[in-house]
Structures are given as structure tokens and as C-alpha cells.
Write a structure and sequence with these properties.
- The complex is a heterodimer of chains A (about 425) and B (about 325).
- Chain A has about 425 residues and is of the alpha/beta class.
- Chain A has one domain (about 50-360, about 380-400): Metal-dependent hydrolases (TIM Barrel), CATH 3.20.20.140.
- Helices cover about 30% and strands about 25% of the residues of chain A.
- Chain B has eleven helices and nine strands.
- In chain B, strands 7-6-5-8-9 form a five-stranded parallel sheet.
- Chain B is globular, with a radius of gyration of 19 Å.
- Classes of the chains: A alpha/beta (about 425), B alpha/beta (about 325).
- The interface of A and B includes residues 184, 197 and 266 of A.
């Protein structure tokens, strides 16, 4: 299918431009000139950008398909403008063997309309003791290796994993958090958490975790990505590591960019995420770090949880929020607030994550895959969580006014979301 | 006077006139409780269920007596031994009890916010009898009543709250209440037992007992909550007693007519000297227990009035 997107506002993170233009697609790729017999799509001045590459999506297969399947997650991703889901291995069982990885890849290919790149666990069962078959899994297509929110507490084990992964050329994703200091905590320490009587941890635990990981990266020469950097205190260490030429990058979840610790209010468990929401100062610092490029990647950290695991006292309730469909409208809050431009946002949502994983996505230049999202950044709506396509409805944005609607999503030039009119 | 609240979940949501109204009514009930005929009919026809998910003897007895004196049908569920152990969730337990049409649920739970959660799921009045480290509103009200009876006012007093602030819901409720009533608050304790961020609560924080007690009108001691401590907070009980335990020598730095309070149960020789605790000239600890029944009668009476008004309007 050949396509010509005319009358578009092109968001090109590679060039850093936001300008009117036309984009042509032939055989699933972006091309220079209008292909013959191309179908014209009038964008009506709406934004056309590379599809979102989302590192850290939890699809609950295998194990908890009632929370989220590849079909439901794929539909949610398509509706949210996410064209590549880089999925987490914290399933039941964990994705820690080539066989499970293959199962997941097959399920994804059958059921998901958007691209899926599964990640694998770094240690068996995510238990932090023995490394997985990093080589086999890498060859089988594991996009990266991570134990997700479980920190490999043994520095010896972690350093060996990093060393081995470096030899294979694999990317390791860490969760920077000092496990001792953050043990049992479900909130960020401060006036509010103390008043609510919640066990809390200082954001210093994140910096300590990052310091440890960066020291081991320096020692081993591994390729390392910090899944979420959410506080001001961790930023200088990240900046220093990058300046010293370590192969490191960092992400942040959309929730830590748009919400703060006070949003928990009267123990609203949909606002319980990992790491816990931070102070407003930390949120602002994280947004600024995205703007400067110090934080490379914005993720949804999509984590489906059913009602039962959230309808519990705050300490007992499960962590995480669904976000595939709310990632783009939530990001528009940052755009409308003047904190980030659309090209800056798309650098973090699409170009940088693709580059970090060695993917050709995230660009609008000829030869790039035609993974695209067409959206209206100004369209207002009130979010109804039961209208989400995810099987789980645990969004902190329920009932909130948002702006930004996805009108169409294309993967390799094929429309996966929106009316073809 | 009726409350504009369906539940009593904490002091945080109460306005000063509401606090005063509860205390005024409790004063009347305190008089009643000292008389020969202690029975009233304010809760007649209503069912009160006490659900204590955490061990309690004193508070549970206080709520039971308060309900019975006001004519309610009172039952206490031994939650520790019940279906919670069989895996039933808090919500299911609440819904099950709700189906029995209680009018007043008195709930204590070891986790902060659990009582708020439960209150969202039932259509009766819920009284928080202590949730985790969050709030214990009737304790703060009985403390306030005790102070008001001893000092004649709740404003412009210097109140030192001493000891394990970090694990104490009593401290949090008292901080809300005394702050709303415009008293001056000092939190005194070792830095490990003062939560991070407490200095932003509009209170003074002291790590030295003598400095913290200087000129105080009210000295409120807290129990060292060893059962809630999951790590190193203090080096030893004897060092704690030496530095933070209240004895006559330290109390000498408070105002000459300062009163000594403790929410109980006391660890004698850990946070308070036994002789001092029994000194009827300084200690109002027994009066606190007495006021507990009166305050709980007042709170349940006012909640029942609000509930009945709501039911007449068909809101519930």
C-alpha cells in the first residue's frame, strides 16, 4: 500500500523540527517522492510523528492473561500511538529461557497489531542468583536483559551478568534502587507520606542504586540503561557517567513526569507505582532532564493490575499503572505546559528508545519504517477508565481532563488504528 | 449540632467548631458516667460492630461500654482469629458485615488508610479506632478533653509530644487537633523516631528532652512501639530511658503546673518513670481513660444523628 500524508504537521525528532509538510510511504517504508498511485491521506494540519517505541511494557502473558493479553495490550498500544512495545519479562513464569521467549514472540505475532520486542530476565526466575542464557536469548531476539523492579542485590552476580552481557553486546536494563533502604517502602519520604503514616523511602535510595550500577558499568564496560530516573539527586551521577563516556542511558515513566506524591491523596492505590511518586521538585527536575536530553527515554511503564490487587490497603496494594493509551495524552500535558516541545517529546518517546535498541524506527527520513502516529494535540476529553482497551483499568488519570487524541496509527505502512476515511 | 461527616476517619477533616461540639457533648457524658444512672437511649435500635484487626483491650472495651451506655446493640468481632486468616480480603469482610445492616462500624487495622478504604464500601457510619500509623481520632479527642478539663482551654498551650512519633497514629491525630485549636506543638524524640518531613508540619522538632520540655504546659508521652519497628531505631531501652524517658528531673524543666499524659499501655521504665505515672498531682493518665468512654459516646451519638438525618432524606 502506497500512502501520501498531505497537509500534515510533521514532528521529526531527528531533525528537531515541527513543520507543515507531506510524507510519502511505499512498501512499508518512508520514501522521498510520491509513489505512483499513492493513496492520499489528508491530515488536516494534525501532527504526524514516528510511532512511539515504549520500553518496559508489561503484558501479563504467560501467567496472568486475565490482566492483559497480547491482543488487549496490542489494541491499547495501537490506540495510544505505540507502534513498538518492548515487553518486560516479569511474567509468571519469568521470561528467562529461549523457550519462553519463543512462546511470547509467537503469541505476540499472532495477536498484536503493533510490533513486539520481548526482553528477557537477567537472572533465572529474576531471583538474582544465576544468570540466564544471555547468549541464546540474545540470538533468539531478546531486546534487552532486565530483572525489572527486582534489584540484583549481589554485586558479584550483577557484575558477572554485566561482564557476560558486554561480551555478547547485549543491553542490560537496571532498576536503580538501594534495596536495603527502600525495603518495605511504598511512598517517598516527606511531609505528606509521614502524615499519611506510610512507610517511605528517601529518593536517595535511587541515587545509591544508580551509583552502584554505574560503578559496575565502569568496571565491566557493559551497555546499561536505567529504567527510571525520577529524582533530582540522581541526575548529577548520570550526567557524570555520560560525560565520562560510559555506555549508559536512562528512562523515566510518564507518571513521574506528570504526577507527584501528593496525588496519592487519601490512599488512592491507582497512584501507587514503583518507584513511588516523587516531590514536585523532583518531577520538575526530571522534566528538565528530558528537555536537556540527560534522561533519554520516556516510557509508559505499562503495568496492568486487576481490581483485586488494587482494592487493598495502600501498603498491600500492587504497584503499577496501565498507560499505553494514556502515554500520549499525558505527554501532551508537558507540551501544553510549555515544558517540552513536540520534537523533544518524540526524541524521548521514539527516536532515543529506538536508537538505544538499535532499531531503525523513530525517524521520518527516507528508508525508515513507516511506523507512524497521527494525532490532534489539542483534542480535549475526559478519561473514562472503562473505555480503555487494556483488560486492566488501573489508570491514575481516571476522570481527569486530558488533551491529545490519537487519530491513526500505522505499522509498516499498514493502518492498525483509526478510521480509514 | 450534627456533624457534616458520615464517618469519623481522622481529625484532619474536622473543623474546629466540630471538635468543640464533640468535646462539649463529651463533657456532658463525662458527668453522666460519674452518676448512678449511666444509661441513655441515643443509639437505641442501632447496631454497633467493633472490628479490631489488631489486638486491643482498652480501646475495644471503651467503645463497647460507650455503645452499651447509649443503648446500642454491641458486638465485637474477634478479627484476629476470623476469616481474614482464611484469605478473605478486607473488602469482602466489610461487605459481609455490611449485609448484616450495622449502623456503626468501629474499625482498627494495622495498615494506614485501611479504614478509609473500608468506609468507601459500606453504607453505615465508620469510626476509625486506629489505622496503622495514620490516625486515631478518638484518642486525640479524649486527650483534648482531658487537657481542656485540666487547663480550661486548648489554645495557646505549649504541648510537647515525646517519644516514638514515627510509628504513632496518636501523635498524628494530636498534631492535627492541637494545631487546629491553635496550640503550640513540639515533637521531642531521637531523630530516628521523628519522621522525615515532620519539620514541615508546622511544629517544632527537638532532639533534646530538656530543651523540648522547657516551659511545656502539657507533656504527652508516647509508647515505644516495639512491635512496629522493623529495624534499628534506638540502641537500647536503657539508653532510650536515659535520654528520652520522662522522670521527675526532666519534668522539672516543664511549666510548674504541667500535666503528664500517656495514651497507654505504658512501658514503665522505658518511656516513663513508674512513680511519675502514678503521681496524681501531675499525671492525668487515669482521667484520659475515663474521658475515652465519654468522647466515644459523644462521637457515636453525633455520627448516629447524622446517619439518621441522612436516612430520613433517603441519602443512604
Amino acid at each position: 500500500m502506497h500512502l501520501s500524508f498531505v497537509n500534515a504537521r510533521l514532528i521529526d525528532p531527528e531533525a528537531g523540527t515541527d513543520a507543515p509538510g507531506t510524507l510519502h510511504v511505499a512498501a512499508g517504508q518512508i520514501v522521498d517522492a510520491a509513489p505512483p498511485a499513492a493513496r492520499k491521506i489528508d491530515c488536516g494540519g494534525r501532527c504526524l510523528a514516528p510511532g512511539i517505541v515504549d520500553i518496559g511494557v508489561k503484558v501479563s502473558e504467560p501467567g496472568e492473561r486475565h490482566k492483559e493479553s497480547y491482543r488487549s495490550a496490542g489494541a491499547a498500544a495501537a490506540a495510544g500511538g505505540v507502534t513498538t512495545m518492548v515487553t518486560r519479562p516479569d511474567t509468571l513464569p519469568a521470561i528467562d529461557t529461549p523457550e519462553v521467549l519463543e512462546f511470547v514472540a509467537r503469541r505476540a505475532a499472532d495477536a498484536s497489531p503493533v510490533r513486539v520486542l520481548p526482553m528477557a530476565a537477567l537472572t533465572r526466575g529474576r531471583e538474582g542468583r544465576e544468570m540466564v542464557e544471555i547468549g541464546f536469548l540474545h540470538d533468539a531476539g531478546a531486546a534487552a536483559f532486565t530483572d525489572c523492579d527486582r534489584v540484583v542485590t549481589s554485586t558479584k552476580v550483577f557484575s558477572r551478568c554485566l561482564t557476560y552481557a558486554a561480551g555478547v553486546g547485549a543491553l542490560v536494563i537496571g532498576h536503580p534502587q538501594d534495596p536495603g533502604l527502600s525495603d518495605g517502602a511504598c511512598a517517598t519520604s516527606g511531609k505528606f507520606a509521614a502524615l499519611r503514616g506510610l512507610p517511605a523511602v528517601s529518593p536517595m535510595a535511587e541515587r545509591m542504586g544508580l551509583d552502584r550500577d554505574l560503578a559496575l558499568v565502569e568496571m565491566t564496560g557493559a551497555r546499561y540503561h536505567a529504567d527510571q530516573i525520577t529524582c533530582a539527586r540522581a541526575l548529577p551521577a548520570l550526567e557524570r557517567a555520560k560525560r565520562n563516556g560510559l555506555d549508559v542511558s536512562a528512562g523515566v515513566s510518564i507518571h513521574h513526569l506528570t504526577l507527584n506524591a501528593l496525588d496519592v491523596g487519601d490512599y488512592r492505590t491507582f497512584f501507587k507505582v514503583k518507584p513511588p511518586l516523587r516531590s514536585e521538585e523532583d518531577r520538575v527536575a526530571a522534566v528538565e532532564a528530558v528537555a536537556s536530553g540527560l534522561i533519554d527515554v520516556i516510557s509508559s511503564m505499562h503495568t496492568p493490575q486487576d481490581e483485586e490487587s488494587k482494592r487493598l490497603p495502600f501498603e498491600e496494594a500492587a504497584s503499577g499503572a496501565v498507560a499505553l493509551e494514556t502515554l500520549l495524552p499525558a505527554a501532551m500535558r508537558l507540551y501544553h505546559a510549555g515544558a517540552l516541545t513536540l520534537p523533544q517529546l518524540w526524541r524521548a518517546l521514539s527516536l532515543n528508545p529506538a536508537r538505544r535498541l538499535g532499531l531503525p524506527q523513530g525517524r521520518l527520513s527516507p528508508g525508515a519504517p513507516a511506523d507512524l502516529v497521527l494525532f490532534d494535540p489539542d483534542a480535549p476529553f475526559v478519561l473514562d477508565r472503562f473505555a480503555l482497551r487494556s483488560k486492566s483499568k488501573n489508570t491514575p488519570f481516571d476522570g481527569q481532563r486530558m488533551e491529545g487524541r490519537v487519530l491513526g496509527t500505522w505499522v509498516a505502512g499498514r493502518r492498525v488504528f483509526g478510521d480509514d476515511t | 449540632m450534627t456533624l457534616r461527616h458520615r464517618h469519623l476517619l481522622g481529625i484532619e477533616g474536622l473543623a474546629p467548631p466540630e471538635i468543640t461540639a464533640i468535646l462539649d457533648l463529651a463533657d456532658d457524658y463525662a458527668t453522666l458516667n460519674r452518676s448512678g444512672d449511666k444509661h441513655r437511649e441515643a443509639l437505641r435500635g442501632l447496631t454497633q460492630i467493633n472490628m479490631f484487626f489488631e489486638n486491643s483491650t482498652r480501646t475495644q472495651a471503651s467503645f463497647e461500654i460507650a455503645g452499651m451506655r447509649l443503648g446500642a446493640d454491641v458486638m465485637s468481632m474477634p478479627m484476629q482469629a476470623s476469616s481474614i486468616k482464611k484469605g478473605e480480603t478486607l473488602i469482602d469482610t466489610a461487605l459481609t458485615l455490611n449485609a448484616m445492616h450495622p449502623d456503626l462500624l468501629v474499625v482498627r487495622h494495622p495498615q494506614s488508610g485501611a479504614v478509609n478504604l473500608l468506609a468507601q464500601k459500606v453504607n453505615c457510619a465508620v469510626l476509625n479506632a486506629g489505622d496503622g500509623r495514620h490516625e486515631h481520632p478518638t484518642q486525640a479527642l479524649l486527650d483534648a478533653l482531658t487537657i481542656r478539663r485540666a487547663k480550661g482551654r486548648l489554645h495557646r498551650l505549649t504541648v510537647a509530644i515525646c517519644g516514638d512519633i514515627a510509628h504513632s497514629r496518636v501523635a498524628r491525630s494530636n498534631i492535627h487537633l492541637l494545631g487546629k485549636m491553635e496550640s503550640r506543638l513540639r515533637l521531642v524524640g531521637p531523630p530516628t523516631l521523628i519522621p522525615a518531613g515532620a519539620a514541615d508540619w508546622g511544629v517544632e522538632v527537638c532532639h533534646d528532652m530538656v530543651e523540648g520540655l522547657r516551659g511545656a504546659d502539657v507533656v504527652m508521652m508516647l509508647r515505644l512501639q516495639r512491635e512496629r519497628m522493623d529495624g534499628a531505631f534506638i540502641p537500647s531501652q536503657r539508653e532510650y530511658y536515659h535520654r528520652y524517658g520522662l522522670d521527675a528531673e526532666k519534668l522539672a524543666h516543664a511549666a510548674p503546673d504541667a500535666i503528664v499524659m500517656h495514651p497507654g499501655p505504658m512501658n514503665r521504665g522505658v518511656e516513663i518513670d513508674g512513680t511519675l505515672a502514678d503521681d496524681i498531682n501531675r499525671s492525668v493518665i487515669q482521667e484520659q481513660v475515663e474521658m475515652g468512654v465519654a468522647v466515644r459516646m459523644a462521637a457515636m451519638d453525633l455520627l448516629a444523628r447524622a446517619l439518621r438525618a441522612d436516612r430520613e432524606e433517603g441519602v443512604v
